[in-house]
C-alpha cells in the first residue's frame, strides 16, 4: 500500500514539474514583441495563430483584447475579454476591469452627449435625421451596457431610445423599453437619480396605458407621486383612472389636490364638477360650473351643463338666466338641449307664451 502511495505522489510531482517547465508559445512571444513595437497587425496575426493552435489560450484572448482597446475597437475588445473571463475569471482581472471602465466611459459619453442629446434637439425639426442619430447612439450605449451593465443612466437612455424609435414596424420596441426600464430601477439612487426616476415611471405608465393595462399604469403613476407629490400629469391620470372605474370618491381626492395646486383650472373644475354630480353633490357641481362660466364666459358647454343642473335642482329662474340669454350663441346641437329645458321651465314661471318659440324650434 505504501509503495502505491509513493508511486502516485511521484506521478503528481512529475506532472507539476512538466507544467512549470512548459515552454511559452512562439506565437505569444511574437505577439508580445510586436505589441511592444506597436505593430498591432503583426501581433494580431500571431494571436490568431495561437488561438487556432490552442482555443483555450486565455493569454491570447487577453492580449487581443488589449490591442482592440488601444485601437478603440470596443466591440471586438468586449468579445475578447468576455472569452478570456470565461476561460479564467481571475486572469489579469484588474487590467481587464480598468480597460473596460475606460471603454465604457468613452462609449457612454459619445452615445449620450454626442448622439442622444443631439437627436433630442432636432427630433421635432428633422425627425428622420434624429432617428438615424438615435440608432447610432443605441449601438454605442448597448455596447457600453455589455461592457458594464450596472449603470442606471445608460440603461435609462437606452430605454428612452427604444421608445423614440418605436413605430408600426417596431411595436415590440415599447415592450423592450419597459423591460429595460424595469431592470434599471434597482440600480438607481433615489436621491441623485430622482428626476430620471420620475421620467422612467412616466414612461412606464404611458406604455401600460397604451397596452390597456390600466392597473399596472396606476402602479407606476403612484410611484411618481412618491418622488413628486405635486406632479400634475400623474395626478390627472390617476383621477381619470378612478373616474373611468366609476370610483368617484377616489377621483375627487385627486381633483382636490389639483384644485389646491391650480384653483382656476377650468378642465379640472369641469371633471371635478362631473364627479360631484355622480356623487349626488349637486350644489358642489353647480358651484364648479358657475366658476367655469365666470372664468370663461364663452364656454357654452359649461352653460348647457349648468342649465341642466339648475333644472334638476328646480332652480327655474337660473335655468332661464343661463340658457335664454345665451341661446343665440349656442351651436345647433346645444340649442336643441337649451330649447328642451326652456320649454319645460318657462311655463313654470308663467311665461308659456315665451316657451312657444322654443317649442317651434324643436319641431
For this entry, give a set of tags.
363 residues; Serine Threonine Protein Phosphatase 5, Tetratricopeptide repeat; 19 helices
Overall description:
The protein has 363 residues and is mainly alpha-helical. Among the domains are: 67 residues, Tetratricopeptide repeat domain (Serine Threonine Protein Phosphatase 5, Tetratricopeptide repeat), CATH 1.25.40.10; 66 residues. 77% of the residues lie in helices and 0% in strands. It is built from 19 helices and no strands. The chain is rod-shaped. The chain starts with a helix and ends with a helix. The N terminus is likely disordered.
Integer-rounded radius of gyration: 36 Å
CATH homologous superfamily label of the domain at 25-91: Tetratricopeptide repeat domain
- The proportion of strand residues reads under 5%
CATH class of the domain at 25-91: Mainly Alpha
Residue-averaged pLDDT: 92
Number of distinct beta strands: 0
In terms of per-residue confidence, which ranges show pLDDT below 50 for 5 or more consecutive residues? 1-22
Name given to the CATH architecture of the domain at 25-91: Alpha Horseshoe
Overall 3D shape: rod-shaped
Order of helices and strands: HHHHHHHHHHHHHHHHHHH
Number of helices: 19
Distance between the termini: 120 Å
Helix/sheet category:
mainly alpha
At CATH level 3, the topology of the domain at 25-91 is Serine Threonine Protein Phosphatase 5, Tetratricopeptide repeat
Main β sheet profile: none
Percent range for helical residues? Answer: over 70%
Amino acid at each position: 500500500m505504501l509503495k502505491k502511495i509513493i508511486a502516485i505522489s511521484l506521478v503528481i510531482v512529475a506532472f507539476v514539474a512538466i507544467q512549470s517547465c512548459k515552454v511559452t508559445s512562439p506565437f505569444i512571444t511574437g505577439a508580445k514583441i510586436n505589441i511592444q513595437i506597436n505593430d498591432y497587425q503583426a501581433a494580431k496575426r500571431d494571436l490568431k495563430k495561437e488561438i487556432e493552435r490552442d482555443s483555450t489560450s486565455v493569454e491570447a484572448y487577453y492580449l487581443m483584447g488589449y490591442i482592440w482597446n488601444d485601437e478603440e475597437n470596443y466591440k471586438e475588445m468586449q468579445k475578447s475579454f468576455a472569452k478570456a473571463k470565461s476561460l479564467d475569471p481571475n486572469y489579469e482581472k484588474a487590467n481587464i476591469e480598468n480597460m473596460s471602465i475606460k471603454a465604457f466611459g468613452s462609449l457612454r459619453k459619445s452615445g449620450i452627449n454626442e448622439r442622444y442629446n443631439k437627436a433630442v434637439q432636432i427630433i421635432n425639426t428633422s425627425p428622420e435625421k434624429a432617428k438615424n442619430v438615435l440608432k447610432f447612439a443605441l449601438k454605442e450605449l448597448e455596447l457600453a451596457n455589455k461592457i458594464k451593465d450596472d449603470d442606471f443612466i445608460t440603461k435609462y437612455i437606452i430605454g428612452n431610445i427604444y421608445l423614440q424609435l418605436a413605430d408600426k414596424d417596431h411595436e415590440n420596441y415599447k415592450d423592450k423599453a419597459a423591460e429595460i426600464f424595469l431592470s434599471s430601477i434597482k440600480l438607481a439612487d433615489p436621491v441623485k437619480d430622482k428626476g430620471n426616476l420620475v421620467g422612467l415611471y412616466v414612461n412606464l405608465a404611458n406604455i401600460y396605458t397604451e397596452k390597456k393595462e390600466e392597473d399596472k399604469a396606476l402602479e407606476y403613476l403612484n410611484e411618481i407621486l412618491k418622488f413628486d407629490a405635486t406632479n400634475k400629469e400623474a395626478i390627472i391620470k390617476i383621477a381619470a383612472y378612478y373616474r373611468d372605474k366609476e370610483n368617484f370618491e377616489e377621483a375627487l381626492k385627486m381633483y382636490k389636490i389639483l384644485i389646491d395646486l391650480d384653483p382656476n383650472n377650468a378642465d379640472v373644475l369641469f371633471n371635478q364638477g362631473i364627479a360631484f354630480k355622480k356623487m349626488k353633490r349637486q350644489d358642489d357641481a353647480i358651484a364648479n360650473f358657475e366658476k367655469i362660466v365666470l372664468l370663461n364666459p364663452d364656454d357654452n358647454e359649461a352653460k348647457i351643463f349648468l342649465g341642466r343642473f339648475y333644472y334638476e335642482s328646480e332652480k327655474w329662474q337660473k335655468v332661464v338666466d343661463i340658457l335664454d340669454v345665451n341661446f343665440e350663441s349656442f351651436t345647433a346641437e346645444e340649442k336643441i338641449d337649451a330649447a328642451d329645458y326652456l320649454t319645460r321651465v318657462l311655463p313654470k314661471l308663467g311665461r308659456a307664451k315665451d316657451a312657444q318659440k322654443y317649442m317651434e324650434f324643436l319641431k
